[in-house]
Amino acid sequence: MNSKDWQTALSDQPHQIIEHGQTRFVLLGTAHISQKSVETVRTLLQSGRFDTVAIELDENRFAAIQNPDRFRTMDIIHVIRSGQTGLIATNLALSAYQKRLADQLGITPGAEMKAAIDEARSQNLKLWRIDRDISTTMKRAWRGLRLGEKMNLLFGGLAGFFEKESISSEEIEKLKTGDMLESTFAEFAQNSPSIYRSLIAERDHYMAARLKQESAAANCHNALVVIGAGHLEGVAKHLQDPHMDADRAIVELDTVPPKGRWLKWLPWIITGIILTGFAIGFSRNTDMGWDMIKIWILYNGVLAAVGATIAGAHPLTILSAFLAAPLTSLNPAVAAGMVAALVEAWIRKPTVGDFEQLQTDATKLKGWWKNPVTRILLVFFLTNLGSSIGTWISGFKIFNQLL
User: Fold this and answer.
1) What pLDDT does 70 receive?
2) Residues 6+ away with beta carbon under 8 Å from 300
3) Would you call 22 exposed, middle or buried from its count of C-beta atoms within 10 A (0-12, 13-18, 19+)?
4) Cβ-proximal residues to 321 (8 Å cutoff; 6+ apart), any chain
5) For a surface tag, which of 95, 283, 303, 306 has the fewest beta carbons within 10 Å of its beta carbon?
6) Integer Cα distance of 166 and 102 in angstroms
7) pLDDT tens column, 78-108
8) Over residues 122-128, mean pLDDT
């Protein structure tokens, strides 16, 4: 491909060319639902001009593109025990969104990334995954939200997201300049500075730092950087910043902010207060002590069982939620939802067919109750929610009795 052909290939696509050290970076801003972006990526990489290709993917999403049927081999028991329920639920939501877009538009979002991967492998080019791990991004976003924003995201936004029959024109336009994460949470990113910072601004900084880091460690002269068009300006700005310490930036942006000290110790403080309340109650009057225990068991057990019931759990799972919640609420290291989810998975063990149908069922809200795999996730979350509410209500009632 001569210089004129090279310019022609890039002429109608958002791009920037940046020199850094010995490396020339060609930043190509793509649309994640555009066949033209796919064709441009293939044309540029087939030119023989590049020795490296960098893509806007982390290791998890890279693996997902390589193995689109990964959910079929998921070990739901391991997911529950290892505390990965939130990550799996997020990945399912993104996967469901991708499937709905593919069904509606006839092209799978991220096809240009797949094209870049295929071309890099066929030509034996270096392949860099430069985006931040999705779990880190979501955790940093979540930790930055106020309580009201969290409730709005959980009970308002996500429910409405799953109930949509089709993707709106506004969301499709967003995918022409952004990426899957931005489009999925577009409404919240616009109204929440913390989500915007985590989903967009921080990732611009992170990807630029990864490019500097990789180019310093490898013999790279010409790299094609395939990123969503919405990241083009931000990545270019950071890439041209001579004062940026790439290694330091990666460490800082990969760190999940710790919970506030009071949040870290709050569950144990509550446990201590409740147990102290029991002790004081028995010291005053045996009947008062037993009344407090009854209150604790009743509200914790019943509300946890209600959560499991709303999730569509098996009767034995609901019973296990009722029995486990009063005990697990006094031990912050164990959650009632984990016990209930494990019981549900044992009683209603998902079949191979359930896993094969998982991505289709996850595209609609009612599908999360229909499919045994997602139902187990719902049992986990809703049982924990019921138990948490029960803890606060019973705690206040015990406190009032002491007063």
Assistant:
1) 64
2) 325, 326, 329, 336, 387, 390, 391, 394
3) exposed
4) 301, 304, 305, 307, 308, 313, 336, 337, 339, 340, 379, 383, 386, 387
5) 283
6) 11
7) 777 777 776 677 667 666 666 666 666 666 6
8) 93
Is it the case that residue 181 has pLDDT exceeding 60? no
Q: Residue 18: is it exposed, middle or buried by C-beta count within 10 angstroms (0-12/13-18/19+)?
A: middle
Give the bridge partners for 17, in sequence order.
Answer: 26
Tokens of 151: 């409730």
Each residue's pLDDT tens digit, 308-335: 999 999 999 999 999 999 888 877 767 8
pTM value is 0.69
The top-scoring range by mean pLDDT among 10-19, 123-132, 197-206, 249-258 is: 123-132
Burial label for 159, CB within 10 Å (0-12, 13-18, 19+), is exposed
Q: For 23, phi and psi rounded to 5 degrees?
A: -110, 135
Q: Is 110 left (phi over 0), alpha (psi -120 to 50) or beta?
A: left
Least trusted range by pLDDT, from 35-44, 231-240, 259-268, 315-324: 259-268
Tokens of 170: 């506004």
pLDDT given at position 3: 47
Residue 166, phi then psi, degrees to nearest 5? -145, 165
